């Protein structure tokens, strides 16, 4: 049986968390608003698009801080991922070639899409035509192919 988390055995955030705490609180407030937003008149999948987009933005913020700007240290980065501030699996995909702009993990899972292939948002716009509007059913992405 896993140990029960209480305030006594929860580690305090590492050094540097105070600098990014305000931005993470903004993301948390946006997430609450998206969860409580009315979904009348929307399609079934469309009601979760805002949640996917905010989760993506928060994970991208943490990724950029650690890998691009090098503004946070490894301890803080690991603590943020462990405590659910970022999606570790999505960030792991962003590090691989061809997945730098991936919107969500559902778009690359073959079982989630028609014909056991990747999502339509992963197809480069040059192959589809410039006039065609592409919109992912699962997350609302309009194109996350690295070739765009």
TrEMBL record:
GO terms for cellular component: Prp19 complex; spliceosomal complex; U2 snRNP. It is found in: Nucleus. Keywords: Nucleus. Its main location: nucleus. Belongs to the BUD31 (G10) family. This is (Perigord truffle) hypothetical protein. InterPro entries: BUD31, BUD31/G10-rel_CS. One of its GO terms (biological process) is mRNA splicing, via spliceosome. PROSITE patterns: G10_1.
